[in-house]
Amino acid sequence: MNLFDLAGRRVLVTGAGANGGVGHALALGFFRAGAQLAVCDIDEEGLARTAQEIGKTALAARCDISSEADVDALFARIKDTLGGLDVLVNVPFVFPRRCPPHELPLADWDRMFAVNVTGYFLCIRAALPLMLAQGNGCIINIGSNAGETALGRGAFAYSATKSAVHQMTRELAVEYGGRGVRVNALAPAQVLTPGLAAHMDNPHFRDKVLPRILMGLPMGRLLAPEDMVGPALFLASEAAACVNGVILPVDGGNLAMNAGGGAPGAQ
Ligand SMILES: NC(=O)c1ccc[n+]([C@@H]2O[C@H](COP(=O)([O-])OP(=O)(O)OC[C@H]3O[C@@H](n4cnc5c(N)ncnc54)[C@H](O)[C@@H]3O)[C@@H](O)[C@H]2O)c1
After folding, report:
1. Which of 24, 77, 140, 163 is 20 to 30 A from 87 (CA-CA)?
2. What burial class does residue 210 get, using C-beta atoms within 10 Å of its C-beta: 0-12 exposed, 13-18 middle, 19+ buried?
């Protein structure tokens, strides 16, 4: 089981401030696996709650990942505090509203790319010198099934940002695999986070959209944030020493299923 040992690993989880979100679950998961944990978020109050819940973070810092100055300042603190970084987990996203592409404001498009793509790039660019100096490191990007197949329903720009995350993952894996840095992504299907739970009060979502989502999930349930923990710990561990450039679906089988698919007994 030493293959899965993460004790003492220096791990940064970005976007860890939303209680019930994926970043929060991953931060708790890495901490429980014995990591030295740094966390950041743009939401200072949420981050403080996460840090308090964990109890012993090496660093908890406000950081807007779309700001070059914020990211560079964060990584300077990480270098001072932890002396390096073994694992970077990129989690944050913004999705201001669903909107048909022909009506999408440029400001929404720009904001989604600024956080969901440029923010990941800035964190990766800041982490790589630390990892290359050590001769090893692991980057885990949170992508989406929407980065592999089309979602419709006004998710045009969000999906495009997630595809960009997946392709950045592959490019970086090829670029740095030979220098000890592995880069992979998790591609979740719909995760029951507070953001998704908020839609349950909307009768159209609850009665029309949710049943269609569930039909696309062969395991018959939404994902939970905690479902991301095991795959992330695996990717960060020695057990995944030769896993590089992979977009790992954590989707209950969604991407495996075609339009005629369904569980036994499904109509
Ligand atoms: N929830 C889903 O159904 C789902 C499905 C597939 C993929 N994903 C992906 O999982 C990841 C997490 O999703 P979630 O639903 O748990 O999100 P969430 O809203 O619960 O958490 C995202 C966190 O990112 C933070 N954040 C936003 N902008 C930031 C910025 N500029 N700088 C720093 N932090 C910032 C937020 O404050 C929040 O704490 C995202 O990458 C998302 O695309 C989610």
Report:
1. 163
2. middle
CA-closest residue to ligand 1 atom 13: 22
Task: Tell me, using a 6 A CB cutoff, whether residue 90 lines ligand 1.
Answer: no
Which of 49, 162, 193 best tests ligand 1's pocket when mutated (most atoms within 8 Å of CB)?
193
CB-ligand 1 contact for 187 (6 Å cutoff): no
Residue 59, SS3? Answer: strand
Indicate the fold that domain 2-193+224-251 takes in CATH: Rossmann fold (3.40.50)
Tens-level pLDDT at each residue, the chain (267 residues): 699 999 999 999 999 999 999 999 999 999 999 999 999 999 999 999 999 999 999 899 999 999 999 999 999 999 999 999 999 999 999 999 999 999 999 999 999 999 999 999 999 999 999 999 999 999 999 999 999 999 999 999 999 999 999 999 999 999 999 999 999 999 999 999 999 999 999 999 999 999 999 999 999 999 999 999 999 999 999 999 999 999 999 999 999 999 989 877 665
Centre of ligand 1 from the C-alpha of residue 15, in Å: 6
Q: Please work out whether the CB of residue 64 comes within 6 Å of at least one atom of ligand 1.
A: yes
User: Quick check: CB of 191 below 6 Å from ligand 1?
Assistant: yes
Structural domain spans, the chain: 2-193+224-251
Rg (Cα) of the chain, in Å, rounded? 18
Contacts of 55 (CB under 8 A, 6+ apart): none
